[in-house]
């Protein structure tokens, strides 16, 4: 696994002074960095219809973008194009290891690892992102210009490319293998490839109130909660039939607020909603499913590894009852299994001893066996 080295400041300093605030270059954040995927493997992934990919280039001075899956790359020249593949951590265990050095930010904030292969003069053009990104330079060299936050005009350079007007750079840097550029949301940036490059963008994204409210609405409908109708016995005579008066407005707000004040409901919603993956998982079910005894036996010999991109979390409000949320599903194993549940969510690799408290619980063992058989966790071999 690549290990992160911060020579100029501590992680605490980074979180206090840069995270969500300003861009910074972390020189040689990954010492002696070696690529985690080959260009051929990346090009192969972009031929799969379950994988989200794009090609970006300029033709006769006009920006072009094509979405995958691709059948051939023959129409591209030797320079001036980029292949962008989303969520490569879901498909490549090696690329998934790049998530761990950034685990000082909790995984519910993680979006994915996007990998970009680009030829000299390639890039996606000047743009603004809505997420925090750590752009980790693999092989090759790229020049990055980053401007300040502000009122930048955005326009569609192509139907699929939202660009930004030229901006003054507050950072203008050349990234070499192992260098990391952190860019918070809202800062315009433009990366141009100097020498054929692989870049790995570890992206983090917050949810908007719109995302959360629409998710909460779906959740309460699914769970058949919040269906009690507004009730108003003792209502006084109304003299303004067209008015929603202050007292009625208060009732409506209280009806909505009662859902938000229910900590268990909000915890179960947040855990389920945030643990759902946006992109497909590369689940490889076991050809010969294990039973619980085989699972326990194998776990004595080797660790379990979480499949890349699988999301599982616990929330303080429900963790004491051994509740966790795995790939959008609530799972409850009881208070005695709490330590195992916490380990399941915190650790990428799990040993028998880390899971001990859960392994005494047949329901936990049954769930773990089902997950391993379905490919959510796998044995290293
Ligand atoms: C790129 O690597 O060219 C695109 C990454 C980004 O700017 O977000
Ligand atoms: Co960007």
Task: Characterise the protein shown here.
The chain has about 375 residues and is α+β, with helices and mostly antiparallel strands. The chain is built from eleven helices and 19 strands. Strand 8 and strand 9 form a beta hairpin. The chain folds into two domains: about 10-205, Sandwich (Jelly Rolls), CATH 2.60.120; about 290-380, Malonyl-Coenzyme A Acyl Carrier Protein, domain 2 (3-Layer(aba) Sandwich). The model has no long low-confidence stretch (mean pLDDT about 95). The longest helix has 15 residues, at about 245-260. The two termini are about 20 Å apart. The strands form five sheets. Strands 1-11-6-13-5-4-2-3 form an eight-stranded antiparallel beta sheet, with helices on one face. About 25% of the residues lie in helices and about 25% in strands.
Low-confidence stretches: none
Order of helices and strands: HEHEEEHEEEEEEEEEHHHHEEHEEHEHHE
Report the bound ligands by name, code or SMILES.
succinic acid, cobalt (II) ion
- C-alpha geometry: globular
Strand order of the largest sheet: 1-11-6-13-5-4-2-3
Question: Please, what is the average pLDDT?
Answer: 96
Return the CATH architecture of the largest domain: Sandwich
Per the CATH scheme, the topology name of the largest domain is: Jelly Rolls
Number of helices: 11
* Rg over alpha carbons: 24 Å
Cα(first) to Cα(last) distance is: 18 Å
Helix vs. strand class: alpha+beta
Helical content stands at 25-40%
Largest sheet: 8 strands, antiparallel
Protein traits:
381 residues, alpha+beta, Jelly Rolls, Malonyl-Coenzyme A Acyl Carrier Protein, domain 2, 2 domains, eight-stranded antiparallel sheet, three-stranded antiparallel sheet, 11 helices, globular, binds succinic acid, binds cobalt (II) ion
């Amino acid at each position: 696994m690549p290990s992160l080295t911060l020579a100029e400041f501590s992680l605490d300093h980074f979180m206090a002074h840069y995270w969500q605030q300003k861009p910074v270059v972390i020189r040689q954040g990954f010492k002696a960095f070696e690529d985690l995927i080959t260009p051929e493997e990346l090009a192969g992934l972009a031929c799969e219809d379950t994988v989200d990919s794009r090609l970006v280039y300029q033709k006769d001075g006009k920006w072009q973008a094509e979405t995958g899956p691709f059948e051939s790359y023959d129409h591209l020249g030797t320079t001036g194009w980029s292949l962008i593949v989303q969520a490569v951590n879901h498909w490549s265990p090696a690329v998934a290891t790049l998530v761990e050095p950034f685990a000082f930010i909790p995984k519910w904030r993680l979006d994915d690892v996007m990998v970009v292969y680009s030829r000299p003069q390639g890039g996606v053009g000047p743009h603004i992102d809505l997420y925090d990104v750590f752009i980790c330079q693999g092989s090759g060299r790229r020049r990055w210009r980053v401007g300040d936050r502000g009122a930048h005009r955005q326009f569609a350079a192509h139907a699929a490319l939202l660009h930004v007007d030229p901006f003054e750079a507050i950072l203008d840097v050349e990234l070499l293998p192992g260098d990391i550029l952190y860019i918070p949301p809202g800062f315009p940036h433009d990366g141009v490839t100097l020498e054929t490059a692989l870049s790995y963008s570890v992206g983090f994204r917050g949810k908007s109130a719109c995302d959360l409210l629409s998710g909460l609405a779906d959740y309460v409908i699914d769970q058949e909660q919040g269906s009690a109708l507004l009730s108003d016995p003792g209502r006084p005579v109304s003299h303004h039939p067209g008015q929603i008066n202050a007292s009625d407005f208060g009732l409506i707000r209280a009806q909505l607020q009662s859902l938000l004040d229910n900590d268990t409901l909000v915890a179960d919603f947040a855990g389920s909603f945030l643990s759902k993956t946006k992109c497909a998982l590369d689940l490889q079910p076991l050809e010969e499913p294990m039973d619980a005894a085989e699972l326990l036996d194998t776990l004595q010999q080797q660790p379990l590894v979480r499949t890349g991109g699988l999301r599982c979390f616990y929330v303080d409000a429900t963790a004491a009852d051994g509740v966790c949320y795995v790939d959008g599903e609530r799972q409850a194993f009881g208070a005695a299994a709490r330590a195992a549940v916490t380990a399941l969510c915190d650790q990428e690799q799990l040993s028998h001893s880390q899971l001990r408290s859960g392994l005494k619980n047949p329901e936990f063992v049954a769930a773990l066996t089902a997950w391993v058989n379905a490919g959510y966790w796998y044995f290293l071999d």
